[in-house]
Amino acid sequence: MTAKIIDGNALSTEVRGQLAERAAALTSVGITPCLAVILVGEDPASAVYVRNKVAACEKAGMISLRDVYAADVEPALVFARIAELNADPSVHGILVQLPLPKHFDSEAILESISPEKDVDGFHAENVGALMQGNPRFIPCTPYGVMKMLESAKVPLKGAEVVIVGRSNIVGKPMAMLLLAQSCTVTICHSQSRDLAFHTRRADILVAAVGRAKMITGDMIKPGATVIDVGINRTAEGKLCGDVDFETAKEVAGVITPVPGGVGPMTITMLLANTLEAAERSLK
Ligand SMILES: NC(=O)C1=CN([C@@H]2O[C@H](COP(=O)(O)OP(=O)(O)OC[C@H]3O[C@@H](n4cnc5c(N)ncnc54)[C@H](OP(=O)(O)O)[C@@H]3O)[C@@H](O)[C@H]2O)C=CC1
Ligand SMILES: Nc1nc(=O)c2c([nH]1)NC[C@@H]1CN(c3ccc(C(=O)N[C@@H](CCC(=O)O)C(=O)O)cc3)C=[N+]21
User: Is this structure's pTM higher than 0.90?
Assistant: First the structure.
């Protein structure tokens, strides 16, 4: 038996259709949801993501602004632009593409975004709200994963979850969301002893490491749900995940592919958060 595949492109199309309807309703009362994206530097992968985000916004009837800065830009210029976007009532969401060049204090940049417009959910105030079980914006990638689990009707209550990776943008918020759904959550990282011991216990395994094909079929419990967040590029320039899809799909019960899995859902939930911010501005 090979695993059932959760198609992130198909689910994205469905959810984005619903978002487009809500965006049209808001536009008809004079508010068009608007996302501002800031990109610093010429990293080609980041440029692709930003282009995808801008295109997805427009397709859903939302406005997107894009500011691109040279890698050696004076951080003060970016801070000034964020202050301007914070003060502009026609802008509902602000996203600063990560990672930033080394001479930037990323934390200070994220804290300078108005928490009401922080559609990534990375501001300390929003991280705190998520921890307290009272989120304002759910970080897009873990939010997308929750939608995928819901669409595949994966049971969460009491499930053994193992997350590989503990970053602020994926691993940690993912753990909080699954904990809130009464999963038993284990977080593994580069210092974990015997990774396979942990992964083999998982009913739901989330890989968010950034190491191509590191999770192989022998590390997966038969019938488990395997969520592959990783985006890696092979030497031949092909995209692949952190999961070795070929061996994993023979063991898992449910699996997400790369590309066409979590990536498109991340963009979808960014649109959802931007729309949500715009709807709140009405109140
Ligand atoms: N699909 C999407 O929408 C998105 C995809 N991504 C992708 O997801 C992946 C992870 O991203 P991100 O969380 O930002 O990455 P980070 O580099 O910030 O974090 C990677 C995590 O993996 C852990 N790790 C590294 N090596 C190992 C190992 N050998 N065994 C176990 N754990 C290990 C690290 O541990 P330690 O903390 O000890 O260093 C760290 O916690 C990347 O491929 C990224 O491109 C990211 C965001 C969105
Ligand atoms: N402030 C900030 N917020 C982020 O959400 C953020 C970020 N910075 N920095 C980088 C990571 C990465 N990320 C992805 C989004 C979409 C795809 C995506 O759509 N991937 C497609 C393939 C795209 C391609 O062809 O390259 C897929 O998986 O099918 C991937 C990765 C968001 N991130």
Answer: yes
Convert 200-237 to b/e letters by CB count within 10 Å (16 or more is b): bebbbbbbbbeebbbbebebbbeebbbbbbbbbeeeee
Q: CA-CA distance, 11 to 129, in Å (whole number)?
A: 27
Residues with CB under 6 A from ligand 2: 48-49, 52, 95-98, 120, 140-141, 231, 239, 258-260, 263-264, 266-267
How many residues would you count in the chain?
283
Q: Is 166 annotated as a binding residue?
A: yes
Give the Å distance between the CA of 117 and the centre of ligand 2: 20
* Tens-digit pLDDT profile for residues 160-178: 999 999 999 999 999 999 9
Is 53 among the catalytic positions? yes
CATH architecture assigned to 30-114: 3-Layer(aba) Sandwich (3.40)
- Nearest CA owner, ligand 2 atom 9: 98
Q: Which residues of the chain does CATH 3.40.50.10860 include?
A: 30-114
| Chain region(s) in the chain for CATH 3.40.50.720 | 140-262
Provide CATH code, domain 140-262: 3.40.50.720
pLDDT in tens, 4-62: 999 999 999 999 999 999 999 999 999 999 999 999 998 888 888 888 888 999 999 99
ipTM summary value: 0.98
Structure token digits, residue 70: 């040279």
Asked if residue 212 has pLDDT above 80, the reply is: yes
